[in-house]
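Ticket opened by: R.M.
Priority: normal
Category: complex prediction / small molecule

The reporter submitted a protein together with iron/sulfur cluster and asked that the result be attached to this ticket for the collaborator who will pick it up next week. Submitted input follows.
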Amino acid sequence: MGNSDSISSAGDDPTLRAARLINRLDRLARAEDHRAGLNPAQRDALRFLGLANRFSRSPAALAAYLGATRGTVSQSLIALEAKGYVTREPHPRDRRAVTLGLTAAGRAALQEDAGVTLLADAVAAGVGAEAATLARLLEATLAAAVASNGGRAFGVCRTCRHFRAQAHAGTPRPHHCALLDAPLADAESRAICIEHAA
Ligand code: SF4
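Result attached by the on-call engineer:
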């Protein structure tokens, strides 16, 4: 991986060098995000809705995940609804809340994610078999960043203390969430959740 002026100016401080490299990778990915007529904020909202479980697909959870204001998120969602990518339904348990979803067009736009594809190709070319190690290091870095700004971790069920694997074995939703008292399908247990507790 080559050095740019801004990265080499970090000198011998590996922490600063790593921070600038992460920042530059993010900028390169964001330059790709404008494809398909979406801006980076709209693209981030689509990505979140593709990753989040049914308890977390709300404007408030999206704002928490992105570290964005409710106003910014609201503008992105209005634009995505106008493009036919996102739906907004009444929440099944809370009449004051809404549940967001992806339309078929939204899922198709998510498949053509040029920013993430650029990064995935770069990881494969740059570190190859060390990708799992890089992912673990970045997870630890992200966890520290979220903790320092008081954000929510958004983990998956298998690392959550409320997860009860195979509590309903043999059914379409074999797992159980003890916090929300709800059965979970395999696919749901791999989605990210705002209520996750390590
Ligand atoms: S087990 Fe944890 S991560 Fe999974 S749905 Fe429940 S609270 Fe969310």
